[in-house]
Design a protein that fits this description.
CATH architecture of the largest domain: 3-Layer(aba) Sandwich
Number of domains: 3
Structural class: alpha/beta
Number of strands: 14
CATH topology of the largest domain: Rossmann fold
Distance between the termini: 43 Å
Mean pLDDT: 85
CATH superfamily of the largest domain: P-loop containing nucleotide triphosphate hydrolases
CATH class of the largest domain: Alpha Beta
Shape: elongated
Helix content: 40-55%
Strand content: 15-25%
Length: about 400
C-alpha cells in the first residue's frame, strides 16, 4: 500500500483526493504544518502533496523541515493557488519534484502519482497490482456509487459477481438510493454490455397500454393500432430494466412470467410469437412480500425475478459516506456548470450529517444544488442548507 500525505487547509481537497486515489494508495490528511510533522515521522509516506499556504507555516519551509532529518525522502509535490514562477523555482530548489496549481485536475494528480510510482519506487509485485486493478476500477466511486462504507463495498462486490451471470436481478431499496445506477452497472459488467440497455418506469405507464409498451402490437389489433416494436424486442441481446416493478398490473404480470419462462413475446394482435434474448433486471421500493399477501403481486413472478437480489441501504444507514458524496456532488456540479470551486464549512457538513435523509442521495443532490444557487461566495455555510 503506497502512502500519500496531503497537507492542505482546505477540507474539500482532502475529500476529493480521497475519492480519487486508486485502491492501492492510502491517504493521510493534515491541515496544519505542525500536525503534518508528526504524521510524517510516524507514517513515513511515499508521496507528500504540500500546499504552499498553510495557516501556521509556509509550505516551502515545511518542505525543508521534512527533508532535514530523512535519509530517504518521499516524492514531494507542491500545491498552490498561484502560478508564481519564483515560488515554483524555490519549491524545486527545496526538493519538490513537481508543482500543481489549483484548481488542478484530479486526473493530473493520478497521472503524477503513477509516474513517480513507476520511475522513483520499485513497484509492488505485478500480481498484486493486477489483482487490485482488475478487482475494482475504484475503491469508492466505481459505477458512480460513492462511499467507503461496508454496505457500498458489498454492493460493488455483488455487481461484479452478478453482472456476468444471466439470471434475473431484483434491486430493492428506498426511492432515491440509486437503483437505476445498479441496473446500469449490472449491464456494463455483463456479456451483454455491447447490447442495448432499455429502462421503463412501471408506475408511469397507463394500464391500458402497458402490454403494448412491453411486447409491441400489430396493425389493427385495436382501434388506431399500428405495427409497433415493444421494449422487449428493442432490448434484444441486451438488458431491460423494469423500475418500480410492484406497480405492474396483474394481467401484465402473468404475461411477463410467460416471457421469462419461454423467452418469447407475442405482440398484441399477433398470433405468432417472437423469440427474444433479454436479461431482465427489476427494482422496487415496495415490500413485495406484503404485496403478495395482499394479492397485488404474483408469488411465482416474484420468485422468477428474484434469482439474484441486491438491497440498497438508505443514506441514513451509511452516514460515513455523506462527506465524500457531498464533495463529489459539488465537484461534479462545478465541472458540469464551469462554476467556481465550492467549499462546505464544518457546520454545514455537520448539518448534513445530522439530517435523516428521507429522500436519500437524490435529496442530498438537490440540497447541494440549491445551496450552490443561493451561495454568494465559494463558501457554503449552514444557513444555505435547507431541507423540505
Amino acid at each position: 500500500m503506497w502512502k500519500v500525505l496531503l497537507v492542505d487547509d482546505e477540507p474539500q481537497d482532502h475529500a476529493i483526493l480521497n475519492l480519487t486515489l486508486p485502491p492501492y494508495f492510502e491517504l493521510y490528511s493534515c491541515y496544519t504544518g505542525q500536525e503534518a510533522l508528526t504524521v510524517y515521522e510516524q507514517k513515513d509516506p511515499h508521496f507528500v502533496l504540500l500546499d504552499v499556504n498553510l495557516p501556521d507555516i509556509n509550505g516551502i519551509e515545511l518542505l525543508k523541515l521534512f527533508r532535514k532529518n530523512k535519509k530517504e525522502n518521499p516524492v514531494f509535490i507542491m500545491v498552490s493557488g498561484y502560478d508564481d514562477p519564483e515560488i515554483i523555482v524555490e519549491a524545486v530548489k527545496s526538493g519538490a519534484l513537481d508543482y500543481l496549481v489549483k484548481p488542478y485536475s484530479l486526473e493530473t494528480v493520478k497521472r503524477i502519482l503513477q509516474k513517480y510510482l513507476h520511475h522513483t519506487y520499485q513497484k509492488p509485485s505485478s500480481s498484486y497490482l493486477t489483482e487490485r486493478a482488475t478487482h475494482s476500477t475504484q475503491d469508492i466511486e466505481e459505477f458512480g456509487l460513492i462511499g467507503r462504507s461496508e454496505a457500498m463495498r458489498r454492493i460493488r462486490e455483488q455487481i461484479h459477481r452478478f453482472g456476468p451471470a444471466e439470471g434475473t436481478v431484483l434491486i430493492t431499496g428506498e426511492s432515491g438510493t440509486g437503483k437505476e445506477l445498479i441496473a446500469k452497472a449490472l449491464h456494463q459488467t455483463s456479456k451483454r454490455k455491447e447490447g442495448p440497455f432499455i429502462a421503463i418506469n412501471c408506475g408511469a405507464v397507463p394500464e391500458s397500454i402497458f402490454e403494448t409498451e412491453l411486447f409491441g402490437s400489430e396493425q389493427g389489433a385495436y382501434t388506431d393500432a399500428t405495427t409497433r416494436m415493444g421494449l422487449f424486442e428493442a432490448a434484444n441481446q441486451g438488458t431491460l430494466f423494469l423500475d418500480e416493478i410492484g406497480e405492474m398490473p396483474l394481467q401484465v404480470q402473468v404475461k411477463l412470467l410467460r416471457v421469462l419462462e419461454e423467452h418469447e413475446i407475442r405482440p398484441v394482435g399477433s398470433s405468432k410469437g417472437k423469440k427474444i434474448d433479454v436479461r431482465v433486471v427489476s427494482a422496487t421500493n415496495q415490500d413485495l412480500s406484503s404485496a403478495i399477501e395482499l394479492s397485488r403481486f404474483r408469488r411465482d413472478l416474484y420468485y422468477r425475478l428474484n434469482v439474484f437480489r441486491i438491497t440498497l441501504p438508505p443514506l441514513r444507514e451509511r452516514k460515513e459516506d455523506i462527506p465524500l458524496l457531498a464533495y463529489y456532488l459539488l465537484h461534479t456540479q462545478q465541472r458540469n456548470s464551469f462554476t467556481a470551486s465550492f467549499c462546505l464549512k464544518d457546520q454545514a457538513l455537520k448539518k448534513l450529517l445530522e439530517h435523516s435523509w428521507p429522500g436519500n442521495v437524490r435529496e442530498l443532490k438537490n440540497v447541494l444544488e440549491r445551496a450552490v444557487c443561493l451561495a454568494e461566495s465559494s463558501d457554503i455555510g449552514p444557513e444555505l442548507i435547507h431541507f423540505y
